[in-house]
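Side project, low priority. Logging it here so it doesn't get lost.
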Amino acid sequence: MEKPGQILVFDPFRLDPVNERLWRGAELLPVRPKPFAILRYLAEHPGRLVTKEELNKAVWPDTVVGETSLKGYIRDLREVLDDDPEAPRFIETVARRGYRFLALVQRHDEAETETTTPLVPAHPYSDHGAFVGREHELETLQTHFRRALNGTRQVVFVTGESGMGKTTLVDTFLRQMPSDPPVWLGHGQCIEHYGSGEAYLPILEALGQLTRRDEGKRVINTLLRYAPTWLAQMPAAVPEGELEVLQRKVHGATQERMLREMAEALEALAMLCPVVIWIEDLHWSDYSTLDLLASVARRREPARLLVIGAYRPTDIIVSGHPLKGLKQELHLHHHCEEVAVPFLEEPEIRQYLTARFPHHQLLPGLGPMLHESTEGNPLFLVNVVEDLVRQERIRETEGAWRLQGTAAEVRASVPENLRQMIEKQIEHL
């Protein structure tokens, strides 16, 4: 296990366990909390087999997680690390058993590496083009943030189907938040379960992040005063020797008490510092988390609080998830707002190509063809373009990017990972 304040280095990456950040050179890479936790655990135990059971216990100690979800997180990590599962440099799959971290891991004191850390994080798409076509949605989030700073609590749902860039949109918004005043940010992620999941899982994850950062002591003291039932569920945040006393104190607490405590605790935290809570994949959320969102949204007390929840509309319709009715009811009474992430239009695709391929001499018809074949889905667009680069159908020659082959040949190319994703979505529907 690494010492506090140490950075895990495996060329060309640096992993900061305390601040939950992954760097490649001077670029900050976007990694969601659960994949980051998996990567951290694997990097902490390099060279040996980590079984699926051990990994589940380390990352989800009180939750049963399906194998499909675990495989999805590993796939996300491989994309971030640019790791080929057929010839891995970092994460090796041991069939039916688990995973092994292959890279040599070195540990350095944080002070040794901080000089290479940029003051302003790089954009998530800085190596694969520009953040395009989301200016209006980004400005809308910034408007809600300004309202929250003025004391009007905000609950915003960011909606869009798979691949529409909801995470990238919120990531960009968070990275562009001003540093003055400082903001306390907690990020939780819902998980697809087979059976009932742990109540309030994403909220507890977000609070856990707050307790581990610089503001941790103030957060813990506030929870101890206003929400002891919640603090009792975060044993790592409770001072040694006090957990048993706290658990006896809150024994038998009702759900109503927990809802009231957290609503008051968030308001108390927001008095100390503006608070932003971001919850991903609400279409998989447990029902208790929805009850808390509703309780927070309906309260009238002023609070410098912004809650952002992202979800896929189709998933809640197919599954009959109560989030659909809750959002409609809150929206009807002006307790929440929705930011729908649209498909990219053809001019925005051309803008992406220009940013991705400076000085390009691509066919004029490539933009319309990509728009037709991807329908403006950002994930599809990026994967199709990168697949064309890997196949050298888009290649840099004589200082300019050029298209090799005809538009018809390009149109017929569908990356295997997208093919599998589409088949999965069709099967789900």
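Brief comment: The longest strand covers residues 305-311.
Revisit when time allows.
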